[in-house]
Amino acid sequence: MNLRSLAILLASRAQGETGAMARMLTADHGLIAAYVAGGRGRQMRAVMVPGNRVAAELTTRSARQLPFARLELEHSRAALMTEPLPAAAIQWICGLTATALPERQAYPALYDALDGLLDAIALAPSARGWVSGLIAYETMLLRELGYGGGALPEAPDWPAQAALLDKLERQIAHYLLAGHKGDVMGARRLLTERLARMG
Asked: 113-133: b or e for each residue (b if 16 or more CB lie within 10 Å)?
């Protein structure tokens, strides 16, 4: 496999002395895991932040091998990681996406929705400007993976949005993260606690 694509970096973890394993979402190739040489080095630190949009060049000798990735930063969202509520939201949606989606299956609508939600988190003056986008993304993720349908329920005010977030949390834990709940659902609880302070 040799491909170039824009991708949203969802997660990375240490691999070896200086490398990192990255999980990225692309529009045309879906979720891809790849090894990034030097991914924990000083030069790559600002690139390897969940939520960043990167230009990824992926190469591998055979379909069974893990690809090697070269990443270049396209759009940074690293500054948001210093703000507690946006950071919690980004950690949650990126962790959820990295855990729930199958690898190498394209979901172009989910890619666009995730990129739009990350932009909303960056641009909205408060969480009230992006909570409806979070609800829409979670609902869409459930629907794309076969666990929901129909139109997005209306939640015009914060109490209705909070109730809908509670309902979605139960569905996500039951359908998408059964067996993977650990750290991912911990990120959801942290986000929910921080959002509750808005009420």
From this structure: bbbebbebbbeeeebeebbbb
User: Cα(29)–Cα(3) distance, rounded to whole angstroms?
Assistant: 9
The token duo for 58 is: 């992926």
Q: How far from 116 is each of 8, 9, 51, 141, 179, CA to CA, in Å?
A: 11, 14, 11, 14, 29
Quick one: pLDDT band at residue 62, thresholds 50, 70, 90? confident
Nearest to 171 by CA among 191, 148, 137: 148
Comparing CA positions, the residue from 139, 141, 169, 142 lying closest to residue 154 is: 139
Q: Is the pLDDT score of 149 beyond 60?
A: yes
**Taking Cα atoms as reference points, which of 5, 6, 4, 9 lies closest to residue 78?**
9
- Contact between 121 and 80 under an 8 Å Cβ cutoff? The reply is yes
Q: Is the pLDDT of residue 64 over 90?
A: no
What's residue 109's pLDDT?
97
* Alpha-carbon gap, residue 160 to 107, rounded angstroms: 29
Q: Hey, which bits of the chain come out as E strands?
A: 2-15, 19-26, 30-36, 53-59, 68-75
Supply φ then ψ for residue 2, to 5 degrees.
-135, 115
Q: Name, in order, each residue with C-beta under 8 angstroms of 15's C-beta and a sequence gap of 6 or more.
A: 21, 35, 39
Question: Is residue 146 helix, strand or coil?
Answer: coil
Planar angle of CA 38, 41, 44, nearest 5 degrees: 80
